[in-house]
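Memo to structure team: turn this sequence into structure tokens by end of day. - J.P.
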Amino acid sequence: MDRALLIVNPDATSVTPWKKSLIAKALSSDFRLELVETKARGHATWLARQAAEEGYALVAALGGDGTVNEALNGLVGSETALGILPGGSTNVVARVLGIPTDVADAAGFLLSRWQAREWRRVNLGRAGGRYFFFCAGVGFDAAVVRAVEERPSSKRIAPQGTFILQAFRVFFTEFDRRTPSLTLEIPGAEPVEDLFTVMACKVGVWTYLRNRPLRLCPDANLEGGLDAIGFRSLGLFRTVRSLLQIFTQARHIKHRHVRYFRNLDSATVRASRPAPFQLDGDYLGEVLELPLGVAREALLVLA
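Reply from structure team:
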């Protein structure tokens, strides 16, 4: 039997002891399984890297998008495959890859793909020294993620409601919407200055509202480079207009206060003052400079 490591985030929104036991039992039918629970931020990356170095065939991550992101950062460039078992509130990575959101169905999906040897290598985004699957953001969106993470009990009880509430609070009372601080630099192009927020997307879906995908960069895909979008205004009318386009048209946001770039190999975000930074929905602190890029065929994933 192949060896597999099951990494479980016990604090993820929908992870329960029953689900953990169910998944472990299912995977043990096909693998020599080891189960480890994460203890702190970054633990899943360390565990996944150790498993890859020791020749494990599979690392399965049971948790939300943050747990998946940590695990993939430990597996980049290895021959160890990543299996995803959604245990978070939104589970963007799982949905993009067509993995069932019910964790029992996801376990069956994982086993069927393994038995059929159906896996693929995908490109990842790179932000500084970290890799990401769907989105890296500097500015307003990261400030919202930070506010949500500061309220873990509310996030667990009503994750999407908490996100919407904090987005309104940060927008109207906390974020500086008068003085832009970001510049987006792209090789061979003029720097784009006076931005309030910049997001680099590796796939078309930015997040989900219940079952509805919200497409910030609808043409981005796993086989290509990065799409980047920068907002020069966070005025109420222009922000509402952008949100309506995201919710209703699933098309590129088009007006003169938004700059959009397709299929980039690299870019750099610079900030005139420390700016909040998020990666795949996890707040990672503040940055003054963030190099962005693409890691080609960096991850072997069951999908």
